Amino acid sequence: MKNTLTQYVTLCKPRVVALMILTAWAGMYLASSDTLPLSLWLSATAGITLMSTSAATINHIIDRHIDAVMHRTQHRPLPTGKLSTRAAWSFAILQGVLGFIILYFAVNPLTAMLTFFSGIGYAVVYTLYLKHATPQNIVIGGLAGAMPPLLGWTAVTGQMDAQGWLLALIIFTWTPAHFWALSLHRYEDYRRATIPMLPVTHGITFTKLNILLYSLLTIAASLLPFAIGMSGWLYLISAILLDVGLIFYAIRLHFSKDPQIALKTFRYSLVYLTVLFMMILLDHYVALT
User: Fold this and answer.
1) Residue 135 CB contacts under 8 Å (≥ 6 apart), including other chains
2) One domain for residues 130 and 190
3) Are 141 and 244 contained in the same domain?
4) Residue 269: is it exposed, middle or buried by C-beta count within 10 angstroms (0-12/13-18/19+)?
5) Could you tell me which residues come within 8 angstroms of residue 272 by beta carbon, excluding any fewer than 6 positions away?
6) Dihedrals phi, psi of 247, to nearest 5 degrees
7) Of 114, 129, 158, which residue sits at a domain end?
8) DSSP for 52-92?
9) Percent of the chain, pLDDT > 90?
């Protein structure tokens, strides 16, 4: 029983979804000038989480044959047969329907529909089509993964404001360099699976250059909340310190021959986004008090 439960949790991609929920909370709190109602916070968190884990499960289902030939993913529940495809579909549908109902009736219809289309964008458009169609897959498909802060924003305001889109922009610019660093580290996996990731189609040197350029875009986007008055000095100082680390790893990766630098760059990028959104939340809390 415990092992089966672990397999279902794995389908949900909990670490990825946890980061998405953190960014959704940032959207919620920055959209609210007063105390956020607990009922709204719980409903939005539950609904976005359930629909995100549903999309993650569908991603597992669609990618199960590719996962079987990649070292990084061959031990997932579906390639190993620990869970059946039918069970995974039932799990995905249950989560998706429940999450949509919660968002539609307990939050607002706009957030429910945006979350639905974000899930479709990731689980179907990206996984089923873009991932196999173009080396720019992660750039185009990255919009779906960048939506959580906007979802949090609309959960509170009921509308899509520029500030919510700005939070999404930070994740949108961050995603390509983050994922390309992983694809450099797992180059042989993607080549074996014939997935047209940028290192496979355009080479390692070109990919490193793009990581550097997108890191610069991410740095520019990270400074915009302070520039437009969304955040204060605490956030700015934190963002600058994190940006120094981001560009340090990007430059190091660009000139290094050490294959482990790509993995270190990938891991730092996770720390970067996590801490950046934690600090934007802390900055907002300090401003209110």
Assistant:
1) 196, 197, 198, 200, 201, 202
2) no
3) no
4) buried
5) 174, 242, 245, 246
6) -70, -30
7) 158
8) HHHHHHHHHHHTHHHHTT-TTTTTSHHHHTSS-HHHHHHHH
9) 78
The CA distance from 60 to 63, in Å, is: 5
| Residue 199 lies in domain | 161-289
Q: Which backbone phi and psi does 232 adopt, to 5 degrees?
A: -110, -160
Measured CA to CA, the distance from residue 91 to residue 54 in angstroms comes to 8
pLDDT of 259 above 90: no
Distances (CA, A) of 34 to 55, 83, 201: 32, 45, 50
Is the CB of residue 114 less than 8 Å from the CB of residue 47? no
Co-location of 101 and 14 in the same domain: yes
**Tell me, what CATH number does 41's domain have?**
1.10.357.140
pLDDT in tens, 197-227: 999 999 999 999 999 999 999 999 999 999 9
Q: What is the pLDDT of residue 2?
A: 66
Residue 10 and residue 152 in one domain: yes
Please answer whether residues 125 and 144 qualify as being in contact, where contact means their C-beta atoms are separated by less than 8 angstroms. yes
Cβ atoms of residues 181 and 269 within 8 Å = yes
Mean pLDDT (whole number) for 254-283: 95
pTM of the model: 0.94
Please tell me the total count of domains within the chain.
2
